[in-house]
Amino acid sequence: MPQNENTASMIESFDQVKDTLPGAWLLDTRSNAIRSFEAQGYPTPRTEEWKYTNLNRLAREGFHPASDIGSPDVSDWSDLRVNGASRIVILNGRYDAAASDIGEMPDGISIAPLSDAMEDIAPDLEGQLAQIAPFDGGGLVALNTAFMRDGVILKLADGVQIARPVQVLHLVDAGGVALAVHPRTLVVAGDNSTATIVETFAGGVDTAYWTNAVTEIKVGRNASVSHVKRQAESVRAYHTALTQVRLDCDARYRSIALATGAALSRNETRVAFDGSGAEASLAGGALLRGRQHADNTTEADHTVPYTNSKQVFRNVLDDGSHSVFQGSVIVRQGAQKTDSSQSNRNLLLSAGAQAYSKPELQIFADDVKCAHGATTGDLNKDALFYLQSRGITTSQATLLLIEAFIAEIFDELPEGPVGDHLADAVSAWMEGAV
Amino acid sequence: MSLLSVKDLHVSVDGKQILNGIDLEIGEGETHAVMGPNGSGKSTLSYVLSGREGYDVTQGEILFKGENVLDMEPHERAGAGIYLAFQYPVEIPGVSNLTFLKTAVNAVRAARGLDELDAINFLKFAREKGEILEMKDELLKRPVNVGFSGGEKKRNEIFQMAMLEPTLAILDETDSGLDIDALRIVSEGVNKLRASDRSMIVITHYQRLLDHIVPDFVHVLAKGKFVAQGGKELALELEKDGYAKFGIEDDADQAA
Ligand SMILES: Nc1ncnc2c1ncn2[C@@H]1O[C@H](COP(=O)(O)OP(=O)(O)OP(=O)(O)O)[C@@H](O)[C@H]1O
Ligand SMILES: [Mg+2]
Question: What ipTM was estimated for this complex?
């Protein structure tokens, strides 16, 4: 059964803050969600899906949503801005208008902080918010639904292309407060539309905090959404996130999620194929050291014929860090001609590091292609010596080999500022690497 | 003073004794051929000179330009001017040949007190050296040795040698895997790289390479020891009569 005490304290804080949360029309949903959390509790390793990632410590930390924490200076994080992007800053779980810069948007695009949207355009959100990722999908999405206060809503009318990427910069710096934030992002891309969305997470190192994010993405017919995530939370933070995607006919969704931060992180990406011809490419991984733990869990649920999914995950693990990759591919009866591939490779830089890899294929159709592979190994000693014998120092050689190892997750990364944003994440990690 | 001076070198790998007292003096500008049956320790010698991990020197010393090489890391030896053309070049997926070469060239330049080459000058330099070896441009863009044919890999080894401008180059069976034309191009390339301030150790099984790269001295290695030394005519004798007259059993016994 759920960890009752910890669950109870969450329910208590919900009762305290529920009337301060935006969008009165959502109160029923929130109340139902907290009841669902009460029933589901925090996920535990007793469920198969959470076998390798234990939230026990997180549950015991007693993180809570704070009513008001003031506004710390965000200029320290200016390096995390994607140049030229339309930027929305969510600071300590709330929209920070001063730090944000949405800029001019062409017709057919609506972009707004969720807190405003929940008050102003409620009818527009009804039937979409919390529908793509319903709260009964797990204890964490239930909590997020109950407590969600801010985030971003991005809607594209049919045929609209946004040239500028949209960046949502989530920052937490709550002084001494053990803060839990539950940001929610909703992206609805109309037919034939195109958008690039970047989610960046970071925070101050003074105290532990918890980011519990939910991102809902609906991609219309023949529309295309690129989704880049850089998780650079403080090393004391907990980060749990669910991205739930629904794809219509011929829709394309590409995501690259790179984690270098957080003491413990879980990045869950689930894609449901509603229309044939749709394609999803999920790439990502983690660069870890110390005692960091990063979990990437994916699900590609093929329900209709002629859909493709591709998953490429790479983890680089130093010291005593741990990575988890659980990649599930479901090909339902009738989802003929599904083409899916999955590859997970892990590079261990230290004897104390550990990588868990669990591919899971459930195939109920016969005319399909499903490839998967997983490997875990050390740095190639022969390659290392070859480089050294050409005058390259051990640390430079190690960096070259690490870069080469993770290169494949960036295959579909657009060039320019968005690409640089992830390249920066890699170099920042490397600078502390050897 | 010799450029390289190896004295009474004993080396073991995983507790197994492989080199049993090697003495070798190489002067500036000299080319030495090292021949010997499979498993006699030729590659082991080349690895010990270039500093590969796992080779324990249990006795003896190696001096390069008067300095103790055994105290130096592999990259320091490369910077000091030692270069090994591998018998089996290593494939490195994900690292482009160009990135690799640029990093390497600038690393040895820094070690030798020279300025880094910028992108433009590096490319110019690479083109120039590539022409000597008739390297296809396309090979430069590919990951290091990945998808290279056996011959292309060997050619790439000598191309790197041209780029890194060593004072001592060790060529470990550079001729194996080369077709007749490639053998000619590669050995002509090597000959162009011969200089009064560049010495070479050419490890080979065959006279045909030494027809192109004519050595000043020939050494015969067997069971981890030199058993015969002489001029270039020694290689011709070996080609004709085999190793038997040096009291060496044939390969099969060696390997056992
Ligand atoms: N890591 C190792 N562990 C044990 N024995 C080894 C190891 N490396 C080399 N040897 C042995 O050392 C001996 C010498 O090997 P080496 O590669 O130096 O021979 P070689 O003269 O270069 O042969 P070839 O002409 O076939 O290239 C061989 O018997 C080989 O099996
Ligand atoms: Mg050999």
Answer: 0.95
